[in-house]
Request: fold
Amino acid sequence: MSTDLARLIAEKLPAPPDPGRLLARLVRRYADRITGRFTLPARAGCYAELPDDLTPALRTALQARGITRLYSHQAQAWESVRRGQHTVVVTPTASGKTLCYTLPVVDAAIRSRAKALYLFPTKALAQDQVAELLELNRAGGLGLRAHTFDGDTPGDARQAIRLHGDIVVSNPDMLHQGMLPHHTKWAQFFENLRYVVIDEIHSYRGVFGSHLANVLRRLGRICAFYGVSPTFILCSATIGNPREHAQALIGQPVQAITESGAPCGEKHVLLWNPPVVNADLGLRASARSQVTRIARAAIRARLKALVFAPSRLMVEVLTKYLKDVFDHDPRKPARIHAYRGGYLPTERRRTEQLMRAGQIDGLVSTSALELGVDIGALDLVLLQGYPGSIAATWQRFGRAGRRQQAAIGVLVASSQPLDQYIVQHPDFFLSASPEQARIAPDQPLILLDHIRCAAFELPFADTDRFGGIEPEAYLQVLAESDVVHREGRRWEWIADAYPANAVNLRSVADGNFVVVDRSDGQQRIIAEVDYSSAALTLYEGAIHMIQSTPYQVEKLDWEGRKAFVTRTQVDYYTDAIDYTRLKVLERFDGVRAAAGSANLGEVHVVRRVAGYKKIRYYTHENIGYGPVNLPDQELHTTALWWQLPQDALDQAFASRQDALDGFLGAAAVLHTVASVRVMAEARDLMKSVGSGDAGAFVERDPQGRGRWRGDDQALEAECFTPTVYLYDNYPGGVGLSDPLFRVQAELVRDAQALISACACRGGCPACVGPVLAPAGDASVTPKAQAARVLQLLYSA
Amino acid sequence: MSALAEKLRQLRTQAGLVPAADSPSRAGVAPSAGAPPAASAREHLRRLLDLRPARALSRQPLRHELPLLGESVATGVYAMERCYPASAMTPLLPPRWPDGAPVARERFLLFDTETTGLAGGSGTRAFMLGAADWCEGFLRVRQLYLTAMAGEAAMLALFASWLRPDTVLVSYNGRSYDAPLLRTRYCLQRMPDPLQGRTHVDLLHPVRRRYRGCWENCRLATIERRLLRIVREDDLPGSEAPAAWRSFLREGRTTALMRVLEHNRQDVVTLARLLEHLDEGALPLLD
Reply:
């Protein structure tokens, strides 16, 4: 009787959520859209006992938190750190990386009141970390004092933290501007500093990473002054060169732990190409429509889904579409949430908490969730569009997964050539190794900045080195401008200035915009938008969405960094029309490059928002335009560029279109070899193809072919001088162009070698950039045209 | 080293080399090595570094510079001492003194520093220290100043030797400014901070409490003029002290530095007058 009842109840109950069933259904119904399918096998956990030499109080606290054994990588990290080795731990998301540094740090704090400094790239991660430490502290009554120390720390708390904090959790910017220049106030802390923990080191690449490496050199000087040499514990998501990158950051040998002992369930990866909707034009359905469809299916199957959208705007659009389906009853708590930069920190914290508690079914996010914010376990991760790197793709997929159950990751390709290339070459995707993180800590201008800051903190003696550098030449430059003064064998700071305030590690300009809601006759700040995206999202007339509630921007106070909005009811959203142009201000130097020339100079890069489109929801028809009148986003920087005279072009190419394709391809290859040469992040060095007179620029059309775009329509004019520009994406220049100019001939030679070594037929993302359906004759493919351009620029 | 110098030289030449736009390409011609950087190149570098605009490089010959006052007491340190007849030698009761019992005058040390700037942090130093105390019927003003960076340790040690275990420090905004700054300097010289743990009366706070809103502000110069009716002649504003010291250090100019010395001397004398004025033993309490 009772068993019958139990059976009856069981039958009535819905089946437990099962990603496997959704997977089977997707594979069955959409076989033609799935271009690649991989299964990463489940991995059993590999465990180790809690170390014998763990201090008993900590052992008790861990046990109270339910931790009775360690994963193997945690035990390895303990061993390595105990031997005093700098250690980097590289394991997937949710594999218990935190414990790798918590154990030695807390153990040392309990035993000998040794201090530790934690650095996280964002304040949010720092707060997560302190919350976790405090829970452990409570569980064991450890008497541990862990605090965040950042721009939000109230003045009266700072003194106490400096004197009494065991674990100070901060960020690189605060170390640079707040702690090192005031190191004497931190004397007690530094005298007892045993560990420095740097998490998420994969995010310290390029300019930011180069700055951090120099901040750590300054930290090294301060530590030497107080007679300590702390052990570094670093953590990273999967990148191609974790050990090398960690060593470049801290300038010392590092032990790498790369084998995760955490168990993980099976993971299925699908590469998804939207169906062709117009075979004649080769048009595919949008990635957005596919993502919405898959997310709907997953949430209906009661799976927890996370969607990565390519932009903040798309986050809002997708959130609205999912809310229209799942959140139509306003009396119930929302099942769909959006998460992106620009929301107030408190709102993001709340979303994270709800997600951890399992109260959100669908979360739509930008790349903001790539970092280790703890949001709990998920069944499905959906990527709208290829994130641009293999490493970032796996990082996002890493968000899906539970210990025991299968999880699904789906990459939905957009119509961008690079996306199309990835989904049409699944083997390439599967076998490609993750990108390497690169920094250039000896970049002269960055060095000069930090030697200036370092001289403020402690005088330089003649024999002092800075990292591997002899700083004398820099100090001479600083002495010329009365910043330091040489006396005897020392260089002393004499200026009346606080140099760290003039050096921004993240090279972000000019402060955030606040969004002020005036709907109810009062003024309420509802969001923040960073400077770089303000022009694209806060122009007057823009529909600015917050958690998919539309607000219309009525007034933008550019100088005051404020946008005034009111709630509105419209059936469209707005999308900015912007373009970038580049103008040569001054040519410093030029050399002959075979038939053409290579040049070095100062350029002015302008990004202008010319207007916006109104796009109706669901139909996506364009229902109107609006003008935008905003100051241009300007960047004054250095660049090198190659040009060919018109007669050389006319001889070598059958048509201008061919030459254009060639320049576009040559730019892609030159950019690649140049980035490798100066060990720069791709985003620090930018490329552009334009006309020589800055009148027009070339963009890539959906087929991967070149297309002019510009202000004036006189593009067919007789003057035709396509130009490849490589420029420093850093105000004032980050000093990449100058060394590149000096090796320009080698760059052209390497670019040629790269093209001829590439096995593709007509061009691919690995060489001249993605090209779809190359034309029949191999001699006129974009790849061949690019080789021709390079040929004209190189004489052996 | 040479590679590095080369890089920097390149950075400078960058802005200096401006070939005419229509000149033939200068194939194979490296920027001329060793050429002195043009003034515009330095400007360019400065702009990149976000420094202040270049100081006028008019290093005129030194003329009519005053001799340094005082005597050299250690390498890089000059000392100066003057005494003035004391108005009285009675004990004084500073505002809000804990036990309400007047304090012997001899215990007070009134001090003020002149610093290389207001930026704060470990790069700001005191290049001059002035202190007044009462002894044997006189108000004695002793001052120390640096003539070289190397004198800092000696100057700090001398100042520390002026403090006795029962010294009561008196300053104007010294608890928030001078004392923390000196603590940083002692720390950097690896010396114990002699101000640590000493009683320190900061007259800014009682002055604020009593005279807030009476005059335009509560700066020492204002209080001195309005409350004590002291008029200074030819005073060098305190804000010009950092520049005066730098111009001494870099160019050997002494005139402005000697004006800073005089300014500092008057400041500590005023501090003594202010302490007497606020003496709660003598003053009938307002209201």
